[in-house]
Predict the 3D structure of the following.
Amino acid sequence: MHEEDRLDLELHRRLGSGDRAAFEDLYRRYAPPAYALALRVTGQDALAQEVVHDSFLALWRTPEAYDAARGPFRTFFLSLVHHRAVDAVRREERLRKRAERASNLEPRTGEDVADEIVEDAYLVERRREIREALQTLPPDQRRVVELAYFGGYTQARIAEELGIPVGTVKTRTLAAMRKLRRALYRED
Amino acid sequence: MVNGEHERIEELLAGYALLALSGEDAIEADRLLSEHVPSCPMCRDTLAGFQSVAGELALAPSPVAPPELMLPRLRRQLEHVSGRRRRATLVAAAAGVIALVTLSGLSMSLASRASKAEHAKVQLSDFVGTLQQPGASSVSLTSMDRSSPGMVEVSGPGFERMYIVGRDVPEPAPGHAYQLWLGSGGTFVPVGDMFLPEDGLVYIRLTFDPRPYDEILITEEAIGSRMSAPSRDGHVWHASLTGAA
């Protein structure tokens, strides 16, 4: 287990006993990536704020929802944020102007304030690995993963959007997820 | 199960991990997750791997500082939440459920899993209507180990209906689901199908007369197990129906 994951575990343990300092430490560590993710998925500041706010509140209310046996706290919490962001964006589907949303991994102009954020080196390095893994995917596979994960699109919607059969979306998704898994976890 | 079928299941699990399934695929994935995956090591491993990948993808966007006011706002709400944390009262829990059901449009019933906002609205209206009826009584189902938020049961003489609602209900362990039990004189019988919280919400409506029973239990049971008595492993909620106010 990486040292940063250990620190998360300790902060999470303290959260269980209502330790607010631990909550604030977790907020400082994960609010920036959580907000970036929520912004990316929802494309709306107000919705992204609601998602991140509610996710941290849910963490405070039910810290026991995280089970360390299922993986690092980081992936648990950011998955929670992702889930809420996708739910939110699907609620807001009719109001959303998809055309205005970012279509690649680069942040919109003025959005990237990474220079002002002090992140753990581990997170920076992991981000680099994840981006590299995404970039190694064939473009058609990367596209379906990005539309699903960062766009909150269903596979049926992706098929419509790209003008391809749903079966092709499923095949590309599976191929992409297998490759990402191998790349991120160094599996053979 | 042959390899071709596993390939199809893997496709569903990949879409599931990305939250990209809808319609029949989503229903099929739910079925697989409750009937096949828990007993298939290969599928469990695949699902865990894909969910880890999905969790890692979250880091891909460059971090963005949230608005400065978010943390002070959260601090204020922690004050409020701390006072009632792990102490569900009818007003707090029911109001919370009402708000969440309204917002999410998601609900859970023993009979069927429903995700349509219209259905949730009808259920919510039914629940609120019952709460307002003269003679309505409620009891809090308390988490036995005090580690989980409580749930609330609402029923009343002559209603022949019982509601159980909960929010922030934790997911059961993999391969497990929750089961409602009704007890009389220390003997419990399982009631209805097993269920899972949806986004932490539980909404159960039962049509029967609860008067013969004096206790309610909700326990965490292995899916597919032959239940003869409530399990005390995992999450357990309990309430006495005698003297409900």
User: Anything to note?
Assistant: Chain A has a mean pLDDT of 85. Chain A touches chain B through 79 residues (CB under 8 Å). The CA atoms of residues 29 and 118 of chain A lie 9 Å apart.
